[in-house]
Write a structure and sequence with these properties.
By secondary structure, this protein is α+β, with helices and mostly antiparallel strands. It has helices spanning 19-32, 77-84, 107-116; strands spanning 7-14, 39-43, 46-53, 56-63, 68-74, 89-92, 133-136, 145-152, 157-164, 167-174, 178-180. A hairpin with a 4-residue loop joins strand 8 (145-152) and strand 9.
Length: 182
C-alpha cells in the first residue's frame, strides 16, 4: 500500500472496557513521540442513556461501539506502528493481517458517527479568516457565497454575511456547512 499524506479515520479494536485508556494513551504517545502531525483526534463514541439505579433514574454514558476506538491519522509506517503497539490495542479493523495496512472509514460513515457525537466531521477552525469568502454547502443558504464576519471555534460556529434580495444578511452556520472558495 502506498503511504497516504491525507488525514483519514480508522477503527481500532481494543480490549473491551479499555477504550478510554487507549484514547488517553494514544494521545500521550503521539505527543511524546512527536507524532502530532500524523495522529490527530481519537474518539470513543458514546451516547447518553437513562437507567434506573437503585430505584432512581440516572443518565449514564454508554459506549456506542464497545471494544472500538476511532482515530484520525495520516497512515505512515511509523504512525501505524505507534498506534498498533499502543497498550490494549489488539489491531486495526479492516487490516488483512500479515503487516497489511487497514482501509480507512468512508467519509459518510465518519461524518455520521461524529455528528452523533456532536463533533464536527472536519475541524477546520484555523483554516478560515474573517473577511474571507466561502460557499455555503448545506442548510437554508445552500449554494450561496458569503463573507466571514466572525469565528467562534469553541462553539464550532462561523458567521457569514450573504447578499439576499439586494440586502446584507447575517447567517450563523457550523464549520462543516461552509467550504473555501479556490
Amino acid at each position: 500500500m502506498v503511504e497516504s499524506t491525507k488525514k483519514q479515520w480508522y477503527v481500532l479494536h481494543t480490549y473491551s472496557g479499555y477504550e478510554d485508556k487507549v484514547k488517553s494513551d494514544l494521545l500521550s504517545r503521539a505527543q511524546s513521540m512527536g507524532m502530532q502531525d500524523y495522529i490527530f483526534r481519537v474518539v470513543v463514541p458514546e451516547e447518553s442513556k437513562v437507567e434506573e439505579v437503585r430505584g432512581k433514574k440516572q443518565e449514564v454514558e454508554e459506549k456506542v461501539f464497545p471494544g472500538y476506538v476511532l482515530v484520525e491519522m495520516v497512515m505512515t509506517d511509523e504512525s501505524w506502528f505507534i498506534v498498533r503497539n499502543t497498550p490494549n490495542v489488539t489491531g486495526f479493523v479492516g487490516s488483512h493481517g500479515g503487516g497489511s495496512k487497514p482501509n480507512p472509514l468512508l467519509e459518510e460513515e465518519i461524518e455520521h458517527i461524529l455528528k452523533m457525537q456532536g463533533e464536527p466531521a472536519k475541524p477546520v477552525l484555523e483554516d478560515y479568516e474573517v473577511g474571507e469568502s466561502v460557499k455555503i454547502t448545506s442548510g437554508a443558504f445552500d449554494g450561496l457565497i458569503g463573507k466571514i464576519t466572525e469565528l467562534q471555534p469553541d462553539k464550532n460556529k462561523i458567521f457569514v454575511t450573504i447578499d439576499m434580495f439586494g440586502r446584507q444578511t447575517s447567517a450563523e452556520l457550523e464549520y462543516d456547512q461552509v467550504e473555501k472558495i479556490d
